[in-house]
Amino acid sequence: MKKTVLVTGGCGYIGSHTVVDLINHGSNVIIVDNLANSSIEVLNRIKIITGVMPLFYKLDILDREGLEDVFANNKIDAVIHFAAFKAVGESVEKPLDYYYNNISGSIILFQIMQKYNVKNIVFSSSSTVYGNPKTVPVDESFPTSATNPYGWSKLITEQILRDLHVADNSFTVAILRYFNPVGAHKSGILGEDPKGIPNNLMPYISQVAIGTREYVNVFGNDYDTYDGTGVRDYIHVLDLSNGHILALDYLYKNQGQVLITNLGTGRGYSVIDVIKSYSRACGRELLYKICPRRAGDVAVSYANCDHAYKTIGFKAQYNLDDMCNDSWKWQSNNPNGYEK
Ligand code: NAD
Ligand code: WQD
Predict the structure, then answer these.
(1) Separation of CA 224 and ligand 1 centre (Å)
(2) Residue 51 placed within a domain
(3) Ligand (nearest to CA of 67)
């Protein structure tokens, strides 16, 4: 029988791609999103790609009554919980907003899930929970820590889910630690549309490529890496969404388990590698300037993906050129993002 999956934050960057995959894999999808960091236009794009308009509630997960109504009125089999604030720097400026939205929001959601006996949950965590890893590749047994409120909000929510499972082991939990999600849907009509100046590298580069910004600021070229710039494990958002489909399938088949796994490619690329690959994608040499290091950045981070492969059969398919080509297709087709 068709499963019904509630996707919090389903209008956001990763959520929207995952909704497309869920629909294509035969799930009913319900989206709860307050559009704090996304656009209603995403729903039309999902419909164009899949032929299906998902049921949508414009709702804040902090609105307990509103969220309860969603559970009371729908038979939900599983929840994928994307809804959160995600800007590291902003979290340092506004810690209470981040803790309230990301932790209180999660607690309200989990309480309602428990009340309505919905016990399958996939949670968006982050490689940020590894803090400054001593070695690479990073595996799931590495010590966790956080250096900012955003990171703490992810680590604390992970702990809440672990504790919830101890208290009620019918709760089946997948904690997915994403490395650096980038790229866009192959159609070029679904992608990342950050508000304001992008914090992350790929959306910043794509705005340089489209001409909104003049050059890329490279944060440091004196790291102990092969070209001196920071190295990260960039993962195509389509691989990431596939990881959610596999994780959900695992949960359905392994009731009462807690799965904690990395989602990355296992390969690191430098900032300069990404700028070069994007330059090839857009057909012109993108300008960059070397700037001081950004506070809090680590030199190198990439995932050990063995656990993801052994447990859920996950293996990333796309390489850096695919990520840049697909990002550029989205950016060049939608120079102002979802704004008409
Ligand atoms: P996003 O901002 O594009 O999507 C988050 C969505 O949640 C947005 O549509 C926003 O409007 C919604 N939202 C936020 N607070 C809400 C609330 N209280 N009630 C209802 N909706 C709310 O972010 P994304 O890049 O798609 O990230 C999705 C998840 O993955 C987040 O939890 C993020 O922390 C995590 N994550 C992201 C990255 C990344 O680099 N993008 C890396 C690791 C983990
Ligand atoms: C990548 C590399 C920068 C921008 C962040 C969060 C992490 C996770 C993913 C949510 C680094 C360099 C960047 C720029 C640059 N998000 N850079 N110029 O910092 O690895 O991870 O996003 O969970 O928690 O911390 O990603 O894309 O910001 O940076 O040189 O304008 O690009 O120094 O080496 P990061 P990023």
Answers:
(1) 32
(2) yes
(3) 1
Q: How many independent structural domains does the chain possess?
A: 1
> Is 37 touching ligand 1 by the criterion CB < 6 Å?
yes
Nearest atom of ligand 1 to the alpha carbon of 154: 34
Cα 191 from Cα 205, distance rounded (Å): 14
d(CA 90, CA 148): 10
Q: Are 269 and 306 in contact (CB under 8 A)?
A: no
86: in domain: yes
pLDDT band per the 50, 70, 90 thresholds, residue 340? low
Residue 337 forms part of a structural domain: no
Q: What DSSP element (H or E) covers 11?
A: none
The residue contributing the CA closest to ligand 1 atom 39 is: 181
Residue 317 in any domain: the answer is no
Full domain range(s) for residue 19: 4-184+233-265+303-309
Which CATH number belongs to the domain containing residue 111 in this structure?
A: 3.40.50.720
Question: In this structure, are strands 231-232 and 172-178 parallel, antiparallel, or unpaired?
Answer: unpaired
- Structure tokens given for 132: 């400054």
Ligand 1: atom nearest CA of 61 is 19
Q: Which of 150, 204, 250, 302 is catalytic?
A: 150
Check if 150 is active-site. yes
Q: How many Å lie between the centroid of ligand 2 and the Cα of residue 76?
A: 35
Lookup: tokens for 53: 């308009």
Which of the four pLDDT bands, split at 50, 70 and 90, describes residue 187? Answer: very high
User: Residue 242's pLDDT is what?
Assistant: 98
Closest CA to 70 of 128, 30, 28: 30
